[in-house]
Every structure is written in C-alpha cells, then in structure tokens.
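Example 3.2
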Amino acid sequence: MNIPYLDLKKVTALHAEKIQQAMAEVVGSGWYLQGQALQQFEQHYAQYIGTKYCVGLANGLDALTLTLRAYMEMGRLNEGDEVLVPANTFIATVLSITENRLTPVFIDVDEETLDLNLHVLEQTVTAKTKALMLVHLYGRCTYNGSIQDFCKANDLLLIEDNAQAHGCLYLSSYAPHGHLSTVTCQQSTLPRTGSLGDAACHSFYPGKNLGALGDGGAVTTNDEDFAQILRSLANYGFSEKYVASYKGRNSRLDDIQAAVLDVKLKHLDAENQRRQAIARTYYKYIKNNAIRLPQLMDNGNNVYHIFPIFTSQRDRLKQYLLERGIGTLIHYPIPPHLQSCYPEYHHLSLPVTERLAREELSLPLNPTMTDEEVMYVIKTLNSQQI
C-alpha cells in the first residue's frame, strides 16, 4: 500500500468542480485584486471565526508580521518590547517578531499537553513584556482561562497564531484519558480559535486544513481601528489611492485564491470531523510502548492539522514506515532558537522543546484517507519493535 503524507491533488479533487467554477467566475469578471470575491470570503471567514473583521493577506508570515507592525503604529508596541512565544513552533512565528525589532522570549512547553507552561510564563514577565503570541500548534487549541487571566493581569496583547487550527473550538477542559467526545462543529455555539485574543493570524498554505491553491493568509479581529491600519499596511500604506499614511508593503490575498477558499470553507467542518474520526482511531488502536502520543484533547479542541507521535528512535521509525509505503514528515527538526539565523539564542536551554524536535514524527492524517489506509498505518506501527 502507498500512503503519501499528503496528496494535495486528491485533496483538491474533493471539490474540484466547484473550485474550477469559482475560479472561472473570477477570471471572467476581469477583477483579480481587491474585488468582490475577496470581500465575500473575508465576510464569510469573519462570520465563521466569530469576529467582526477579516483582512485577507498574501501569506501567513505577513499576517503575523503586519499584525505586530499595526500594533506598533497604534503605539501598543515599541521596538525592543518583549513578546512571549512558545519555543515549540514554526520559525515564522519568531521571524515576525524579530522582523519588527521586537524581542522574542521563548517559553518551554509542557511535554504531556504540548501547551505553554503557565508557571514559567508568570516567572518570565518583565516591565518590557507587552504581548503573548499563542500558537495553536498541530491544530490543538492552546488557549484557556488561565492564559486569558494572565494576559489581563499583565496588560498583554494576546495574539493567536492560528495557522494550523482552522475551525478549532475552545472547550474548557481536556477529555478523560482514552475518551474523545463527539462535538459537532456545525451545531456548537462554542468560540473558535481565531476569535479568542486581540487579533489572530491565519495561513492558507495549500497543505493546511483550509488551504488555497497557492499562498494566502488573513487576520481576524474585533478591533476596527486595528483592522483599518492593517489593511492599509498591506496595500502600500495607502489610506486612499496613492496617499500613503504608513510605510506599507504589498501583501494582498488575490481574488482567485479568495474564491477557492470560499468554496472550501463550506466543507471545513465536515473535513475536520473526518480528521477527528481518524485521530480517534489512531488513539484507540496505536499500541507500541516505544511510541508516545500527546495528551488526548476533547474532540472539538483539536482539528488535527498534524498528528504527532514521539519516539527516541524517530529516524529509524521514519525509514521503517517509508519502506512500507507510508509517508511521514517531521514538525520541526530544528527549533527556532537553535536555527543558524539566531545565534544569539543558541545558549538557551529549552529541554522539552529540544526533545520534541528530536523525537517528533507526523503520521498521515487528512480527509482523503480511507479506513483501510488508517488501519494499515496502525498495523505497521504496532508491528515495529523499536
């Protein structure tokens, strides 16, 4: 059996006819930037997330970078201010901070939950700490009431990096070990990630749960002033045509990508539920003492963009699976503070994050997988003596 980690052609084929029709309508309209298709997607995505505003941008990194820049223009942040950030994250989260000449403060995570350690957070705050960048890594909701109280008590901006958690719900507790509830996203009135902080940054990279056919991103918020400044920054800094109020850049979500995303948005909840069903099967049947799974979360609290497992024999297991037709990826082999572009942080000791980077392996999990393929992955994992 051949099971690639992700077959984007099969993912696109799920809605190919509607996608092609939507793209053709944009092409026929003659309006390809800042047109009706973009306005429609922004409106629909804001409604879906549960915010007043959505600003489409060129990619997820720009969403992060321009969010911080907008807060600097508003006087909420200044050069040199500290931004708390989980050490276990994709490098884009940190690049957005240093791009704005802000200072990332890396917080190690809990090995069981993969969430920020609140005790460490409380010990790290200084007079220069002005924001917390909360990353919903792997599709897991990392927000909780304690995080909210912490940010309010310390007057911190709460910015969500929601690049991997489209459609994820916020439930107040973890499920008991060995149990997953069957929360139905469409029927739930619970808040979603992307609506929990002051602003939230989204990536529509093709492999995401809500992926475009190229790069794309967005920011959601309830702050009208912030949204207006952000939109201006993304369009050369213009407050009106050819009148630049800010030193902006060109970072616009084009109408063809917006039209594609608007089609796929209608199916996001159903596809997330398929991901959750596959995850339930993985949790139920993976039985290998050499493999560690993250702490189980209530079903709606995780949309399983990535299904990580951990083992001290990661490279050996990866090769074993590849030889049996199962593709895997590593998220991520080098944590940001150890990347060669950040030598100033190489002295930091973040043991949990560093161990996760050595041991993480991502299993195939996407809505196109069949039950037979899922059970083949499980059987192959269980048969390997690591």
